[in-house]
Amino acid sequence: MKVVTNWVIHYLADRLFTSLDELNDAVAVQVDEINTKTPFRGEGRSRRDWLEERERGATSTFADEKGSDFSRR
């Protein structure tokens, strides 16, 4: 989290925002850009790919354990 925070602050440091919504939109754009960069941790995939893979594994394990009909939204 510290790395992402530092990167966002670095990218937005020279900008002036006139509303909280404007700042939030700019932060969201930078976080999305950071998450789609490759490589992440020296791997050939992005942070988003890494997180989605972990999430898929966690949700499929949960659904298998509960024996329920689990679907993504």
SSE layout:
Layout: H1 2-12, H2 20-36, H3 47-66
Low-confidence stretches: none
SSE pattern: HHH
Mean pLDDT across every amino acid position = 77
Strand segment tally: 0
Subunit arrangement of the protein: single chain
Q: What does the main sheet amount to?
A: none
Structure, explained:
With 73 residues, the chain is mostly helical. The chain has one domain (2-66). Helix content is 66%, strand content 0%. The protein contains 3 helices and no strands. The protein has helices at residues 2-12, 20-36, 47-66. Helix 1 crosses helix 2 (20-36). The longest helix has 20 residues, at 47-66. The chain is elongated. The two termini are 26 Å apart. The model has no long low-confidence stretch (mean pLDDT 77).
Keywords:
66% helix; mainly alpha; single chain; 73 residues
Quick structural gist:
The chain is mainly alpha-helical and 73 residues long. The chain is built from three helices and no strands. It starts with a helix and ends in a 7-residue tail after the last helix.
